[in-house]
Amino acid sequence: MAASSRAVPSSAEARRRMQSVRQKNTSAEFALRRELHARGLRYRIHVPVLTKPRRVADLAFSGLRVAVFVDGCFWHGCPQHATWPKQNAEFWRAKILANQQRDRDTDERLRAEGWKVVRVWAHEPAERAATKVATVVEKRREKLRA
User: Fold this and answer.
1) Contact at 8 Å (CB) between 121 and 71?
2) Which residues, other chains included, contact 44 with Cβ-Cβ below 8 Å and sequence gap of 6+?
3) E-strand spans in the chain?
4) Under 8 Å CB-to-CB from 59, ≥6 apart: which residues?
5) Among candidate residues 45, 50, 51, 52, the one with its CA nearest the CA of residue 68
6) In CATH, which of 3.40.960.10, 2.170.150.70, 3.10.129.10, 3.30.420.40 is domain 22-145?
7) Which of 44, 60, 73, 119 is least surrounded by Cβ atoms within 10 Å, i.e. has the fewest?
């Protein structure tokens, strides 16, 4: 990113908060992984599913070609919980919209390569998210058996 388009924290506290945000191994990911594991599902984590451009799934059932992404409400613009910051508003709006566009591009590229993409919001209860993932995984398994 060019220096002119970088976000400049509005305060030392804002800078601290930005630096503390996890990109992987979030609490939502851990909860989903625990629930899937308890259901007997085995997966790989932080799997590169595309190389150019590089995209990494939070979870993947590689043999079944199922990629799972756990999207944070702020970073991916959750329609239920997204907020628009007042500080650096133009930058953050562009950033979140670019994230959403990248998500759509990732989904399209993966589908074109035969992957099934599952996106869950970080705010979703782990049980519900796991049911969504497990349903897709089971359908893919049935399809392979047929």
Assistant:
1) yes
2) 59, 60, 61, 62
3) 44-50, 55-61, 66-71, 116-121
4) 29, 32, 33, 36, 43, 44, 45, 47, 67, 68, 70, 133
5) 45
6) 3.40.960.10
7) 44
Q: Quick: pLDDT tens for 57-83.
A: 999 999 999 999 999 998 899 988 877
Where do runs of H (alpha helix) occur along 21-123?
27-38, 73-76, 89-112
Residue 95, classed as helix, strand or coil, is helix
pLDDT of residue 18: 58
Whether the CB-CB separation of 66 and 90 falls below 8 Å is answered with: no
Q: How far apart are CA 59 and CA 62, in angstroms?
A: 9
pTM of the model: 0.83
| Amino acid letter for position 22 | R
Q: Are 10 and 85 in contact (CB under 8 A)?
A: no
Closest CA relative to residue 125, chosen from 28, 23, 59, 39? 28
What band does 5 get if pLDDT is binned at 50, 70 and 90?
very low
- The whole-chain average pLDDT of the chain stands at 88
Residue spans of the domains in the chain: they are: 22-145
Tokens for 68?
Answer: 């799972």
Query: Which residue reads 């239920």 in tokens?
Result: 80
